[in-house]
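Sequence in, structure out. First:
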Amino acid sequence: MPIPTVDELATFLTEIEACLNSRPLTYQGAELEEFNILRPIDFLQKEIVLSLPKALTQSQDSDPNYLLPQEVQALKTQREAEKALENSQRRVEKFWKIWKNQYLTNLREKHKKCIGSKRSGQETPKVGSVVLITDPVLPRNEWRLGRITKLLSGTDGQVREVELVTSTKRKMHRPVNLLVPLELEEGETDSSTPQEQKELHDSTQDIPSAHKNVRYDLRSKNPVQYTETVTTKAFTTAKPKPSKYWFLFHLMILFMQFNLGNSAAETKILCGENGAIVNSSKNASLEICAETYCVMRNNDATNPQVIRPPAEMTLHDYLVTVKWSDEGHLYTIQTRCPALDFCKNIDCTICARLLFNPECWPKGAIFMLAFLLYIFATTMYSLFCIASLIGKTLRIIIGITAKIFTVILRKMAKCISYALRKNRRRQTTRAMRIAAALALMTILIKQEKIGVLSCQEIDVLEHHSTSCVISREKETCKTSITEVLKLNSFKQEACLRLVKNSSLVANVKIRWHGLRLTCAKETEFFTRATKLSVIDSKRCPHMGSCTGAKCAVINESTLLPELRQGNQYPGRTGCLESCGGLGCDCFYPSSGCLFYRVYATPQNSEIYEVFRCAQWKEEVKMEVLVEELRLGKRKFVISTIPNIPVTLPMVKITLTLCTIPPTPITTYEFVTNGAETALWPKEIEPNLRCETREKAIALNCSFIDNCRCEGAEN
């Protein structure tokens, strides 16, 4: 049996509660004929009916009537609901059979002290008592009660059968072992202790009684536990001892209810006046999208997330989608929010959106336009008018500044030439030239190393493994170093430095370039660009195809010679009853036929394929830079696929895991003509649905339309 979902488990637990709360506790009523039982559910709502009859509404007709797509979808939803109800009822019926037997057995456990006498009890039922009658064929939540009217004794004086009357005034005979007392029954409770009962039993053994049976002084037998569900004692007033199985059962129900509460919906989307409000009890990263506007939020369980999409998106009803990842599973919820007032959702004071929509705030738009015109006029006036008035002053200031800079440059040139002449007078030795060259090389090498090894800080996991081989008294060891690097779109670089005996062997730099997803295509159907057309023909009775049963024999696939033009294309044929007689230019005074056919005409020869991606294959492009002292720098650009190693000089790179953030486009359907690909909206239903490309070329396709045709006389 498959694992039930949260909704199925909630329904199952509710049905279990109904079974538990429908058991009869006791009866009420002053008359002996009344059987008004009292159930636990009656304390909440009296005489409520908990049974849910299921009527089979599925049609058994081999030739069902034609239904429109909307009606077909409604019928499909109804059948799915009926199937889900059947599965739920099957589980509840299984629980009912187990629980009913356990419950009746538990009621008999109140008389466990009397089981040692096997088929005969030490106490007899009482006339007028109401008991439960064991009946294995009763439906769920139904119990049969009866009132004892007569006790039937055997030849040995023991009561093994009683006469009962039911609520329908029917009398019946039942053995005592098929009767079970109610959970709460009338009678006095025997409060004496076991020691007092034993003393009373010993004191009354010597009292002669005419009706007391003579019993042999036999050895006492050990109690025997029978597997049958019947008992020889149907009445007692002792307080029942709770069973450990009942305790475990109630503990299981409470645990399942707690688990159900924890697994209930933890994320909700509410539509507000200013956008969507997301309430989530998960402390996780949420991707919230309103149509094409998406944001990433780090959710805080105490504060709801408010998303305000652009005002132009809320002019019509918009779809809000929330995605989050939890324990390796991607969860998605969607809701459609109603359109909002455009003006109320403009959240800026000075912006182009408010300027180009003056009806939202006329005064603000006028003020903004006047302010912009003022800024433009002031700028033009400063550039042309003020510059011409103070032009002479500006020229004087610029001339003085240029002279100052010229004097400074001349002084600096004289100082440099003086220093050079002084240095030429000194004799440079060979040691000084070598020291200067070494210093320059050191600076250049240091700068080069800094440029190569400047990387980001990432998480690195390191593992060393050494394998040694001994052959001919010679041991050869090989050391492998495995480094696990975590790269992402924010930390794209990682550097490794290989050192042996404090000597640099090589530097390895790995840079993440990008991720490429390849679609594993799964074809849904093929279609073509079509145009719907209608052709009709009016025929008088007993003329052409309007003979015999007339419209009664016409179905969607009928090809009529009157509609020859539309028969060569996919479509559906229909017939409506029309007028006849002399008033409609017909000879026979009978109803005529109005034939019509709705068909799809292809607009071009292109075949479109609608598909979805059942799986996305990841491929990561990386740039690897290997620098060795002997071979210098070498650059490699590789493409890595998960769990497939790529071997390079000195290193072997394997992509072990690729985690993709929630990407809505990966769940969409696509349409392609072989050269171009586009998104396919799910709400669009084409007129032609073809199984293969060859059938689409031959127009051997299923025809779908939403047209309704009605006759109109002219």
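Second:
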Amino acid sequence: MYQKAKLEIIEDNIEKGLQIIKKIFQHSYPIQDTRGLYKLYERVSLNRNMAKKTKG
């Protein structure tokens, strides 16, 4: 139970962090220059999906 709650907190923090990063990138670079950001987003999404699979 504790592990599950901890994981959900981490996931929320990742989401918030990604939203902040997206805002920063949107203001400082044109969209086509954010490929690295999308790669990061994909990697984080993948990690979250892996975490969900191993959770139960």
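Remark: The mean pLDDT is 72.
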